[in-house]
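PROTEIN FOLDING TASK:
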Amino acid sequence: MTTAEGRQRGRLRRTLAMVIAAVTMSGLAAACGSTSPPPAPAATATTLGVPPDRQLHERVAISELPVPPTAPTDAAGSCTEAVNPHRTGCVTAQWGGLGATGFFPDSRYTLVGVRFAGAPAAPDPAAVYSGPQVLLVRTDGGAFAGGDAWKCLSCVPAANAQGVDAAQFTYPIRGFRDGKRVFLGHSILDCGEFEVSDDRCTPDRIHIYPIRWNVTPDGSGDGGAYREPRLNPDDTHLGWNYFPGFTGDLSPSATIQYGFMGTLEFDPHPATGSPLVPRYDLTNVTTLYNPAPQYQYWVTDGDALKINPAGIIGEFRGWTADGRAAVGLTPHDSGSVDLWATDNRTGQSRPLTDHAEYSDPMSASPDGRWTLAEQVLGSGRLDFISGLRGIPPITDLFTTGYVSSIRNNGQRRFFAPYLVNAAADRSQQINAGGDPNWNAAADPAWLADSTGVVYAENQVVTPACGGGNPLPCPASAEPGGRHSRVMIARFPDLAPQPVPVIPPIPDAVPWGTPYTPGVALPTPNLLAAGSYTLTGARHGTARVELAGTPLTSITVTYTAFSDDGDHTVDGTESAAILPDHSVNLHEHLTLSGRRTGTKTTSEPGGFTMKPQVLQNNFQATGTLTTTVDGHAYTQPGNGD
């Protein structure tokens, strides 16, 4: 076997992560001015980053986009004419006042989610600039007819948005390629014959329609709940996630989530199912999971454990640039949750990022050459559990949901924007050297000509800083003390590309499971308890002991194990799910080769953590420490 073949097999073997493929434990969720930031450091005493031999070196120029003025307070009427002479709204100063950004088919514009505050009461015309809304923002320094560099698209009369949940407007968002429609998370905005950038596209001409998918055999009821929907680049299909029986209180060890895909069909006169207003229905729905063995990546042959890189959806996050592969989350190395693309036709999966520690929000460049992935790598947040490369993600069968929950501290998100090449073997943090108190917000968006990306940032606020938290709260230098902003990063060496035409993808997903309302969802195909051996792609073995029905414990013994030929793992590790849904780890691993290190837990009790999915509140007993090339990386404090 050649070195290249070994490395490729190693990349595939490191998919050994979660029990569930399309059914997974959830991971729910810069310097200003023109700059050319230096590459991120490979390793320091405080954080790990992209290794020097894996770094891109694209030039980057970062600046801030114009947004509405900041409201002095969130109180009604505080957005006065003195604050905004054009009377076109004020953004709240609070965390998240500016959020997701969205693709628009003309590079002179981008979409931005906003929370307006301080609007006067009706019947004042400015009353419409209130709450969650979506803006079209100029990226070229120009202005709309009214003199602003932004235009509120969703600020329409109530009669033009019947049956729509306005709270869902701002995330995620994406423009259709006709320029006349915009996807607003759970609805679709339509300006009829005019592009939304046209000054003739006025609020009275805009209509917003809800989206519904059916979950009952007779088509009755309010339709199915869904989260993290993403419009396919073909403008015809939608992907989303669904938690059966979701209550909001989720244990990472017990959470089951399914990915779906459906076709958007406009129904002007619906006869059944709420809401009975013009709407988009999702038809030809497919569950992005198949329990058949050929779509599982845990494969056993006697006592041998092997990898089959297929069906890796995990939590659905979006689409590739051509819309022909669904993007989802699953671990790569142990403790590192990465992005994967799964072909809609064959179900075969390939990695889009490599050792991101945690990656979640993403955007594929329209020309298909790049991914803008927001990653936790470089922040230091997960180095203590994710930092050691070369360990296959076997105990991640239990720990992935916990890692996804500790990548944030409440509303502080440790994401930074990374440019990743199509081969997923090179990347760079595009705002390296920026203020670490400003963190990237979901989702980023590429310019239509593939020469730059737009992303929002939020500045850390209490209780994620100040008070009992050792991190002091920084003062905001943004206008009005705003704690959010919108950045644009341009890549001067990337030549503008034409916006590609994306033909509609097939409605059918041959590898998935067709969805029939009222019929039970497919049951996950789980590994059975027993003893197995995973053989390293280059050399060595990992002896795996699985116990419990359902599984409650994993023990792994590594003997000279190597997938890539560059790193060798020896030692033992174990993970156990406890009755209170916490997970207990014992780690005694040694890494040798290109990089050296250890991964150890305090004994005899080991390391126990119990963050809940969606809560992002790290709580642990004991310690877990990872050492890489002589630098020790330790866990955050409880609640930090």
